[in-house]
Amino acid sequence: MLMSEAESQPLPPPTFTFLVLSLRAQTEIQLGLMHFGEEEDKPQPNLSTARHSIDLLAMLQEKTKGNLSLEERRLLENSLTELRFRFVQASEELSQAASQKA
Question: Percent of the chain at pLDDT above 70?
Answer without folding.
Answer: 89
